[in-house]
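Morning. Coffee machine broken again, so started the prediction first thing and wrote up yesterday's gels while waiting. Chain of 419 residues, entered below exactly as on the submission form.
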Amino acid sequence: MDHLSGFLAAAVMLAAIVASEAKTTIEPCSGSDSCPALLGYTLYADMKVSEVAALFATDPSALLAANALDFAAPGAAHRILPAGLFLRVPTRCACADGVRKSVAVRYAARPADTLATLADVVFAGLASADQIRGANGLADADPDAPLDAGQRIVVPLPCVCFNSSDSNLPAVYLSYVVQVGDTVPAIAAEYETTVTDVMNVNAMGSPVAAPGDILAIPLPACASSFPKSASDHGLLVANGTYALTAGNCVQCSCGPGNLNLYCTPASLSGSCPSTQCSNSNVLLGNASTNATSAGCNVSSCSYGGFVNGSITTLLTTGLQPKCPGPHQVPLLTDPPTTVNRDYSTSLPPLSAPAPAEAGGDMPEPPPSSSVQGGSFTLPRGASTADGPARSVSEAPPTTNKQWQILSGFILCLILHFHM
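Came back before lunch.
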């Protein structure tokens, strides 16, 4: 009996060690916190820009801007995007249960919809059937059973903030669903980050990810320094893209030459406040130059945030060695009409959905539930701790290698005690 007790104690101890190594830290937040984030979404059918925007409760122009697609073109919201197209969907990452882990949208079910098709097809793996079932209190629902037409379904989607920085540099985090054929080095290279950063952010023990896993990818970004009184305080723009602000009266871009935010008037709204710097004839985003023998006197007008319905502008003057040339901005392109990869879908094109409600309160899941999608977990009451590791979630379940170590140890103990 003493041998058996010793064996059980040793096995439990090793299991605890394996489990403790899988724990990760989660960024704490307060109930009023939110940050800009991006959802990586692959279209399952040909869809209008406005339909994709409605699915995620975002503005069509903001959706186009986040992908450096021409958001000012006439009829841009009605352009049809092809099945298989990958988009970055802008969202606000809200605080829930003390951690920034999810943004909720509400979806009106169609007759052919099931929990499984919502998860795997309509939302392209950003949520699992179990996640959706738990968020709606549908404990006994068959994931393959048709939902009631018109039924309002809360869909929790993963998002991350990490104080909007990566290695102390401004960053916007993209929730990316790993596809067949993806590798972590290729993903890191695609998004101009490093394998080490991807591993640290996602608390990965090795640079290996399986199809369906959800990774938080830090994208280099331009940060704003608007005052807290500004409605767009904390604005971040991913490198190579745009963001619209001030009631679509201002467009801000990031890159390509540097990571300094650059804002100019937008032409999307018919009625906008003045964008001229006070006590000058310089408009927002422009510069007045005067070449002299000592250099170039430059007066530039920059954006300072949207405060109480007014566009705040900041006039900066100074002497520079030479006059600046035109500012380079990311290239805006027309929405594509084809995608260069095979894509198939089992559902018909999405009819225009009812407007979703982003960031709404989600129904409480049963007390013992933990809602999962891919490797992205939404834990209830997750504890927080300081440490170098940063994670979007609880760590993924113990790996096969870890269990192989545990199994081998147990086998050795059994053989030892029988000798």
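The CA atoms of residues 118 and 237 lie 30 Å apart. Going to sketch it on the whiteboard this afternoon.
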